[in-house]
Amino acid sequence: MEKKIRKAIFAGSFDPITNGHLDIICRSARIFDELQIGVLYNPNKKGMFTFEERVDLIKKCTSNLDNIKVVSFNGLLVNYCQENGIDTLVRGIRSGADIEYELQMAHMNKELNPNIETIILPTATKYSFISSSLIKEVLNFDADIKNLVPKVVLDELKRKANRGK
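^ thats the sequence. predicted structure below, dont judge the formating
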């Protein structure tokens, strides 16, 4: 009997990818045979990084993981999963507020596609306060964020900040 490949997706905007995201990615990569990092494309949303830059940064940050595939899509995540043979969504949480939101999303996704399971992983405690939005906010005040994002992301954030001055 052929062994089924366990495929999952961790989706988000990743603007920018943080050490909290990488914590969830690395832990998920140990659980699944293939982990897709799904970068959501929203042409109506202007982020700090372009869509292409976000994809490139994620690829650079995960190049040491051989079972990672960076993908992009628009539309419903459950539809993408069904079209690509993925039956597990990975979601990261930092706080109680995240739990409530992710639980609602998990129930909605289950309603839309009963074959999709959601696994919720709490991020490591040392990253529990990090969000992409907060990173961008404190960066405006020249805060030291070197422990919060990968070096390649930090370099790009500084480059963008210096270009804006």
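Residues 1 and 140 are 56 Å apart (CA to CA).
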